[in-house]
Amino acid sequence: MELEGSELGTKDYWETSYTREIKNYKSHGDVGEIWFDEDSQQRVVDWLLKQDNIDKQKARVLDLGCGNGMFLIALGNEGYTQLTGVDYSPKAIELAQGIAKDQTLSINYQVADLTQGAQELGTYQIVHDKGTYDAVSLCPDNPKEKRMQYLATVAQLLQDEESFFVITSCNWTEDELLQSFDELFTKHCTIPTPTFKFGGKVGNVVTSVVFKKRKTK
């Protein structure tokens, strides 16, 4: 199954959006929208804080499609120090850098298109995606090919089989993610999200799943 293409899957849309948000931030100090709410972000932060095997000082964290960088701001405020954010929108990176500077947090931000590979970024213990796989899926041109390239890049970015790929999606169910990720990743756990009931069936507004890289044979 493929999602119908949307402007949300285009670089032009995000450049225009973040150009507007930079102006708002400079004028009013408004950091802009956190895509599908702060609660989704906080649930991931809370889950990470409960993991005894993650050292805040040593764990390298990468936020894919970081946008305004508020996920990394949240981790920085919790004591994480090895933080990197990437986005294919230069305007998003400009906004994120400005916010981090004003918060006096040291966060590395850089422009990168994850559908084109990203070996220069190195490897990480925690790789985070909130909505970026969704945006790639909405690309009007070759979305399936771009999704596969994106996932291959994510696998290369994980340090080892004990590293975590944490993804939150508002377009794909957990079963759909499991099916699409099966070749490269295995499910570690589900981060519970709010449910709703409609027509006797229970569903989730968003899906948050933690994956690990499949062991190489």
UniProtKB/TrEMBL annotation:
Keyword Repressor among UniProt keywords: no
Chief location of this protein within or outside the cell: cytoplasm
Cellular compartments per GO CC: cytoplasm
SUPFAM superfamilies: S-adenosyl-L-methionine-dependent methyltransferases (SSF53335)
Cell compartment(s), UniProt: Cytoplasm
Enzyme Commission number(s) from the entry: 2.1.1.-
InterPro entries: Efm4/METTL10, Methyltranfer_dom, SAM-dependent_MTases_sf
Keywords: Cytoplasm, Methyltransferase, S-adenosyl-L-methionine, Transferase
Any single GO BP term: methylation
Residue ranges annotated for the Methyltransferase domain, each copy included: 56-188
Family statement drawn from the similarity comment of this UniProt entry: Belongs to the class I-like SAM-binding methyltransferase superfamily. EFM4 family.
Protein's job: S-adenosyl-L-methionine-dependent protein-lysine N-methyltransferase that methylates elongation factor 1-alpha.
The protein's name: Protein-lysine N-methyltransferase Dbus_chr2Rg1434
Organism: Drosophila busckii
